[in-house]
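User: Quick sanity check before I run a bigger batch. Here is a single chain. Can you write out its predicted 3D structure?
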Amino acid sequence: THRKRFVLSFFPPHKRIKISKHTRMRGIISQQQQQQRAAATTTTTTIGSFRKSSFGGRSTSKKCNNNALKVVFCGGSGARARRDERRARCSKHHHVETSSSFGSNATRKKKEGETLTRAMREVHDTKDEQKTEETKAYSKDGTDLIEIDEMLKPHEGHLRYRWEKFLEVKGAIEKASGSLTAFADGYKEYGFSKKEDGTIVYKEWMPACNHAALVGDFNGWNGEATPMARDDFGNWSCELPAGTIPHDSRVKIRFFKDGGHVDRIPAYIRYARVPPNEMGAKYDGIYWDPPKEERHEWKFKKGPKKPSAPRIYEAHVGMSSNDPKVSTYREFADTVLPRIKGGGYNSVQLMAVMEHAYYGSFGYHVTNFFGVSSRSGTPEDFKYLVDKAHELGLRVIIDVIHSHASKNTEDGLAGFDVGQKAEDSYFDVGEKGYHYLWDSRLFKYDNWETQRLLLSNAKYWIEEYGVDGYRFDGVTSMLYHHHGLNMEFTGNYEEYLGMNTNIDAVVYLMLVNDMLHSNYPEVEVFAEDVSGMPTLCRDVRENGVGFDARLAMSIPDFWVKYFKTRKDEDWGMHEIISTLCNRRYSEKAIAYVESHDQSIVGDKTTAFWLMDAEMYGHMSATQPITPIIERGIALHKMLRLITIGLGGEGYLAFMGNEFGHPEWVDFPREGNNWSHDHCRRRWDLADAEHLRYKDMKNFDREMLNIEDGFKFLSNGHQHVSTADDNRKIIVFERGDLLFVFNFNPTQDFEGLEIGVPKPGKYVCVLDTDEGQFGGRNRVDKGTEHFTSPEKIESWVGPYPQEPRECSMKVLSCSRTAQVYRRVDESEFMNSHPDAAAVAR
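Assistant: Done. Predicted structure follows.
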């Protein structure tokens, strides 16, 4: 074949895992679907043909001509309840406690007499990799991906229809505007703009309006002073002499209909805020046009190039202060960004940047899509933050929420819906236009002006603020008419590519990804999807939806399940590697132990699950360590290391959790007496030399430095050679590194024999048990390990593996993990003058 391949020997557990009642997705595959799986590959040494979805899901298999199994993903599963309930909290008038849910694992029964080595992943065609995004041709009929996943074949008609719709919409846009990117310049035309002579132009799409006027401080809020004129397409506009509207003054659009009127914030407003010191006040649109001396002067507007693998630090500016208050963009830039860079991350993902009326929504109920959140500063302040991040070598990813919008009519975009027909609104009508669980409005994605607004929104933040990419939130809700509610995805492709699929939303996502990747080669766009839809993270030009990667949302829920339900001696090594390796072939995933979802009120951080109340009085390094704290810190490090090692092609951590931040996140609300005490980050804990938080911080930094040095996240080689449920040992290779884990709560293994891929000398480059990480220093990192030509038996769960080329012995201590690298021959010769004799 013309494919590059690598092997990951792994086997899903035999039995179905009982799923929480809150789970929304579950992977399953029928015998009939198994029989439909593709025929054998011609390769004799490596078999891969898939990467499984990062959301649970099942695989199907068929015996190949080399006596191994060819495996493809057949469905996704994952956690939806936590996100759904968190969003339900976002209503301004009520609070709902969150609850956790868990993704299912892949399962399959062993066939007698079969060799059960399974290839985990096969990277893209070599020919595919050689084509850049600029030169790769668009698909002729939209069926290209069937060659990669033949389970798409029965849905060829759906793929063709989707492709035709995409080309139809894109063609119409190009005919009207010249290009997709020119159409996305809507932010330059709508809202406020200026002509070369300084004339102020204001334009708004309001087809349901009978009459309109621009009002504000500049005209004393007089609805007759600045009337607007309508064109044939429902656009209202007016022009004012230069300087008429002062910078930083309040403005609104007065919307007249059926004898009455309402004042609304302009849809494309670039800044909005509430009057200071007024509880419950409504937002005002702000005309933002600072004089030259007050504008931010860019030094590093263009960010670093796209990394080989993203190491993402998820952060919330408002809650980033050590003090109980709302922090600012400038404070974050000066105090938190250096921490992120020093911690080994290459990207910062900022939540809640777009303006949102309800602080407790985590930024997910957006009111003003083009405005930075005024709680933390001005547009110039946010530019300062981005500039500082780029200066430090950090990329800036921001959350973009195109799945829904706040229903607050007086604060944002929803105010332009006054009961008109759907064609004249940004939103759909009736049940189609309302998300009952999130209590928010849903877009009508096939409307011309909805497409213009959302595409412009994606282009605007790059052009105006220099951001380097996006995390698209709530993608599952967009992909399906049922929004993933009360739905369990079984793995049947009909669920992904059938009548429930929202083709209009899928086409919009293809349009925005096509526009972004075609015009900004260094952009990264990530999807928050729990359904496991195939093609989501494939190139638009081959009829994929176009995302760079999806979040591996089932992994944190899997760890929480273990914390809640499993004793240490019952942890399943086979189950762990099955979950971490469970992601869709040829589509990248971002792995993480915990994000903000696991930190919100009603749940616990990983550290708090492991150590709980013991953290309040036993984290001092000046006192003997307690068994609970020792166990908690040990597992905190091991879970991060195994997750980054096996869980995906990128890594993410939420602000503060890298050092074991205790307790939870709870935004100020009536239920907590509007307190900020749990809406901040206790950096002082990580900085205190006498506390053990620094040990987890130090380990996280060194772990990411190892990834930066060896680039194992982006390396194609992945192979699990051992998953021993009896001894609690896991051994796997990732890139050029060898990982050894001992999850046994009591037993050390001196002289543990492990298989290694190549003969030579190996040295330890990372040990979770080092003293600087709060460990006991039981492993001597200076020890040189030489291989033996003897091959040893290797098992993953109950399944025997092909022995590795050679073996070596290591010390593996209870609740520790080590990472080894093979010393290059040239290094070996230089360090051993008698190398020739040693070799003989």
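Confidence is low (pLDDT under 50) at residues 1-80, 89-133, 835-840.

User: Great, the batch can go ahead then.
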